[in-house]
Every structure is written in structure tokens, then in C-alpha cells.
């Protein structure tokens, strides 16, 4: 029986590992809604994968990456404010995905599983995809860590000091798109952003450096995945919500502990 | 203003123009920066002061004219007062080394120049306005720049702190001989410590020593007759306005 759990456990661990640093940047750069928008487009990616007869993960990665680049370009205009733009793209991507899914006969998929994750749907091939993405993403994150941090603190300053800001930002967006693509089966498209931002926000209370926060977010994310999958396994609950609730409980506990520790400081 | 030809310029802009999002922000700007010189950019809000600075730094692309920087020129930049998100745990020493690594002794040395070495391990969010600006000034000094570019260096600093900070900037110039280009609103404070004032309103309205600029009719037009009065600057009437279309053919000498 337990061998059925292994693929989800392994895949979840890899995802949480890279979600830590990427999610920390999402918190610092106020991009949670941005991540949500990219995740919501994942549903369209599923359909694309089925229609083109390619692996679903690849289909999702194609769509989320395209959306990321589209957002990058669209954010240069000023007429539509960023949050409105994200709202339009986020909801329309979700709606279009649902419609296409409803109209295509060839796609027989458990919608609940797509939206909220289904650990039993994770197969060894998915684990390979996660391993591949992790193997590519981790070194890339290390590579862009310092420049992206500089851009996050002050974009003009980073640029004046010789950083290719646009290239770094695009690379970051593509990394998020990739994580979303491989994370969908386990946490579902509606909850992927939660796995990225909740652990990061939770360890903020304990961190004194950006690195502590990123590593802490990875650790807390992995713990949330393990505990959440265990809960899901024993209670038959959908895996995504189980993982997210676990992470949220950790967030609340960490907040409580840190507030109790230093009541005088702000 | 008799301008003796000098060949030792660090930065030289000729007829420089910058458009942002299709809008012409700067037109036909001429500017020279020489070693050890303090150049102060003044002008009303939206006149393009920050844009000019960012063009000099290579942040904004120059869309017309020429910009020459001495090869290998090191520029230290202190941007306008910035807010760093509380969500980002960042200490002063990390802020100092965001883009260029430095040894802790070097960081401390730089912080000593602005009298804030004790702040090195402090989270940046806990700094006062004056402390933050001093840290940013030290940061700009860290890589021994030939030119310091300061965008409203005293923003968010109380009045006494302002005077101190301007004195500090002048002392840095005296000690290190680096050139300083700064944007300022504090006409009355800056004038005394400035070698060259550039009065900007999308184009260079007038330029020269503080005394000569103060007497230029363009300056009076831009800042009103009470320019000596500190308050005059903040309440002046904008009777010196050019339509953007007119700017192209417009030149002052």
C-alpha cells in the first residue's frame, strides 16, 4: 500500500524544495496574485497537452510560460493597472480552461483532482518530471539569487550597478511557470501559490537574512507536504487542501510563537 | 558664463534627449561633470531631474544626442528614498553588498565615512530616515567611485540632519576628490556647497555658478523672485512653462 504514496511523496518533496526560494521572492516582490494567475492558466495547459498528445506537464509548462511572458510584456503599459490585468488574465484563463475541458470529448479528467490535487494520480513518470525540473531549477535559482535579490530591493539601483534586470526577471518567471507545471497534480492549480507563499511567510518570523527565509521555507514546505500527504492518505482527503492546511497551521503557530517571544518589538 | 574648455571631463552629455513611453522628458541637455566638482540639478517636480540622472547611469536609454562617460568610470549611485518591504529580512551589511561583494572591514570603513558603523548588523527596516540615507551614501562610496550620483539625498531627513548630511557630502568631495552630481529641492542649503547649478525644466534653462544662476532671468522665471527664501521654492508659481511641442526647437545659451 505505502508504495502508492512514494511518487507523491518524492514529487512533493522536490516541489517544496524549489518552492521555498521562489515563494520567498513571491512574498518579497508582492507577486502572489501573479503566481495565482499563472497557475490558473494551467487548466488550459492540461487541455493543450491532451489535444497535442504530449505529456500534460509539458502542456502546462508551455501555457504557464507563455502567460508569464505575456504578463511581462503587458505590464509595461500603464492604462490597465497590474492587479486588474492579473484579474482579467487569471479568471479568463481559468474560465477558458474550464470551457475547453467541458467541450472536448477526448479529455476525460477528474476536475476536482486538477483543481485541488490528487496524490494517487501521481505516477513514477511525474516523479521524473519533478526530478528534472528540480535539477534544472535549483542551480538556476542559485545563479540568479543575488541579482534577483538586488532587483527586489531596488530595480534601478541593480540596473545602475550592472545587472541585466529584465533577463533575470524573465528567468524567475519561467522558473515559477515550471514549478507550477510539475506541482499541479499534487496540489492542484488553485492551491499551488499557497505552497509557495505560506511556508515563506511563516518562516519570515524567524529569519534574519533572505537565505534563512528561503531555506526555512523549503524545509517548512517539505514538512507540510509530508504531513499533508499523510493526512490525505489516512483520511482520504484531497492532497492539495491537506498540504495547504498543514502549512497554514504551521504559519499560525510560528506567528504566535514569535509574537509571544518578542512582544515589545514591532 | 565664460566656460574655459576643459578636457578632463568624466561625463559629457551633448544635446541629450530621453523619451519615456513615447513622452519626451528631456531635450537637448548639455552637461559636463569634472573631477571634484559638485553639480546640483534643480527644477520643478516632473522637470526630468531623476530622468537625467538615470540616463547618466545607463538606467534609461538615451534616445537622442550623445552621452560620453570616461572609460572605466566608477559611479556610486544613491537613489531617491526607497522603501524596503518589511517582508524581506535584510541587514545593513547585506544591503551594502547586494551587487558587489565586499569584506566586512571594507563595509565598516565605508559606514565610518558617514558616521554610522554601529548600524552594520541592524535590519534595514529599523533605521530612521537619516540613518537609512547615511547607509545608502556609504553604500555608494563602497566601491571608491569617481562620481557620486545622489538623487535627493536628504529626503526623509529632519532639518538638522539635512544640514549635516549636506556638510558630509561636501566633506566627502573635499577628502576624496570625487565628482558629485545631485538632485536637490533644498535650494537654500545646496547653493553654498555647489560649484555648478543646472536649472532643469525638460531642457537646461540656465547653468553656472550659484551666484550667476541666481541672477539669470530664466532662474527667476522658474523659481520666482523670492528664491533666496527657502519657502519660495515650495510655493513658487509655474509661470515658466513650455509646451512639449515647443521644446524641440527651443534652446538656451
UniProtKB/TrEMBL annotation, chain A:
The chain crosses the membrane at residues 43-73, 85-107, 127-149, 170-201, 213-234, 241-260. The keyword Transport applies. Its main location: membrane. It holds the Pfam family ABC-3. One of its GO terms (cellular component) is ATP-binding cassette (ABC) transporter complex. One of its GO terms (biological process) is zinc ion transport. It is a multi-pass membrane protein. It is found in: Cell membrane. Keywords: Cell membrane, Ion transport, Membrane, Transmembrane, Transmembrane helix, Transport, Zinc, Zinc transport. CDD domains: TM_ABC_iron-siderophores_like. Gene3D superfamilies: ABC transporter involved in vitamin B12 uptake, BtuC. The keyword Secreted does not apply. Belongs to the ABC-3 integral membrane protein family. Involved in the high-affinity zinc uptake transport system. This is High-affinity zinc uptake system membrane protein ZnuB. It comes from Saccharospirillum salsuginis.
From TrEMBL, chain B:
Transmembrane segments: none annotated. Residues 11-226 form the ABC transporter domain. Keywords: ATP-binding, Cell inner membrane, Cell membrane, Ion transport, Membrane, Nucleotide-binding, Translocase, Transport, Zinc, Zinc transport. It comes from the Bacteria. Signal peptide: none annotated. Gene3D superfamilies: P-loop containing nucleotide triphosphate hydrolases. This is Zinc import ATP-binding protein ZnuC.
Amino acid at each position: 500500500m505505502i508504495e502508492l504514496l512514494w511518487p507523491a511523496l518524492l514529487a512533493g518533496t522536490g516541489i517544496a524544495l524549489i518552492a521555498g526560494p521562489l515563494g520567498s521572492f513571491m512574498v518579497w516582490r508582492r507577486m502572489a496574485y501573479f503566481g495565482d494567475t499563472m497557475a490558473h492558466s494551467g487548466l488550459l495547459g492540461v487541455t493543450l497537452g491532451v489535444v497535442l498528445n504530449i505529456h500534460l506537464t509539458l502542456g502546462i509548462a508551455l501555457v504557464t510560460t507563455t502567460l508569464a511572458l505575456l504578463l511581462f510584456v503587458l505590464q509595461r503599459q500603464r492604462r490597465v493597472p497590474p492587479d486588474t490585468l492579473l484579474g482579467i488574465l487569471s479568471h479568463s484563463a481559468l474560465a477558458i480552461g474550464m470551457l475547453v475541458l467541458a467541450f472536448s470529448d477526448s479529455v476525460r479528467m477528474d476536475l476536482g483532482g486538477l483543481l485541488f490535487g490528487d496524490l494517487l494520480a501521481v505516477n513514477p513518470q511525474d516523479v521524473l518530471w519533478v526530478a528534472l525540473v528540480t535539477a534544472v531549477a535549483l542551480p538556476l535559482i542559485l545563479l540568479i539569487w543575488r541579482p534577483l535579490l538586488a532587483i527586489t530591493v531596488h530595480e534601478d539601483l541593480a540596473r545602475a550597478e550592472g545587472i541585466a534586470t529584465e533577463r533575470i526577471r524573465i528567468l524567475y518567471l519561467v522558473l515559477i511557470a515550471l514549478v507550477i507545471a510539475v506541482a499541479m497534480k499534487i496540489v492542484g492549480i488553485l492551491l499551488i501559490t499557497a505552497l509557495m507563499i505560506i511556508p515563506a511567510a511563516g518562516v519570515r518570523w524567524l529569519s534574519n537574512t533572505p537565505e534563512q527565509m528561503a531555506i526555512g521555507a523549503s524545509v517548512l514546505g517539505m514538512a507540510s507536504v509530508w504531513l499533508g500527504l499523510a493526512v490525505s492518505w489516512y483520511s482520504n482527503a484531497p492532497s492539495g487542501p491537506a498540504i495547504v492546511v498543514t502549512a497554514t497551521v504551521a504559519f499560525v503557530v510560528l506567528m504566535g510563537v514569535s509574537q509571544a517571544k518578542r512582544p515589545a518589538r514591532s | 558664463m565664460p566656460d574655459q574648455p576643459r578636457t578632463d571631463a568624466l561625463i559629457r552629455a551633448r544635446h541629450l534627449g530621453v523619451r519615456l513611453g513615447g513622452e519626451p522628458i528631456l531635450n537637448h541637455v548639455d552637461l559636463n561633470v569634472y573631477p571634484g566638482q559638485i553639480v546640483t540639478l534643480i527644477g520643478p517636480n516632473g522637470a526630468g531631474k531623476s530622468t537625467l540622472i538615470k540616463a547618466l547611469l545607463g538606467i534609461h536609454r538615451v534616445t537622442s544626442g550623445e552621452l560620453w562617460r570616461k572609460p572605466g568610470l566608477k559611479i556610486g549611485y544613491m537613489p531617491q528614498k526607497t522603501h524596503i518591504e518589511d517582508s524581506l529580512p535584510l541587514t545593513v551589511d547585506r544591503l551594502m553588498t547586494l551587487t558587489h561583494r565586499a569584506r566586512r572591514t571594507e563595509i565598516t570603513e565605508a559606514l565610518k565615512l558617514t558616521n554610522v558603523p554601529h548600524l552594520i548588523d541592524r535590519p534595514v527596516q529599523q533605521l530612521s530616515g537619516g540613518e537609512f540615507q547615511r547607509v545608502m551614501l556609504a553604500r555608494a562610496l563602497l566601491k571608491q567611485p569617481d562620481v557620486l550620483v545622489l538623487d535627493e539625498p536628504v529626503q526623509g531627513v529632519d532639518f538638522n540632519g539635512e544640514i549635516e548630511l549636506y556638510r558630509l557630502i561636501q566633506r566627502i568631495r573635499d577628502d576624496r576628490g570625487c565628482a558629485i552630481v545631485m538632485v536637490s529641492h533644498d535650494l537654500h542649503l545646496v547653493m553654498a556647497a555647489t560649484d555648478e547649478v543646472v536649472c532643469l525644466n525638460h531642457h537646461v534653462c540656465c547653468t553656472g555658478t550659484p551666484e550667476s544662476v541666481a541672477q539669470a532671468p530664466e532662474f527667476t522665471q522658474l523659481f520666482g523672485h523670492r528664491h533666496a527664501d527657502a519657502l519660495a521654492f515650495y510655493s513658487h508659481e509655474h509661470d515658466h512653462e513650455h509646451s512639449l511641442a515647443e521644446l524641440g526647437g527651443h534652446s538656451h545659451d
